[in-house]
Design a protein that fits this description.
Length: 58
């Protein structure tokens, strides 16, 4: 049998709730700012044509 886990007191619960409020992301639609640009695969090795990706041993 496992021992009973201790219950959190009111101060601990308040600290956990405050930490979650700080870390949790907020929706940015209310601010009216445009969404961030989508990430693109520019400059990656797989974006080059196949002949340029081939490495020659000499």
């Amino acid at each position: 049998m496992r021992p009973a886990e201790p219950e959190a007191n009111d101060e601990e619960v308040a600290a956990i709730v405050a930490a979650v409020e700080v870390v949790w992301p907020r929706p940015s639609a209310a601010t009216g700012s445009p969404p961030p640009p989508r990430w693109r695969f520019s400059g990656r090795w797989w974006s080059k044509p196949v002949p340029e990706r081939r490495e020659r041993p000499w």
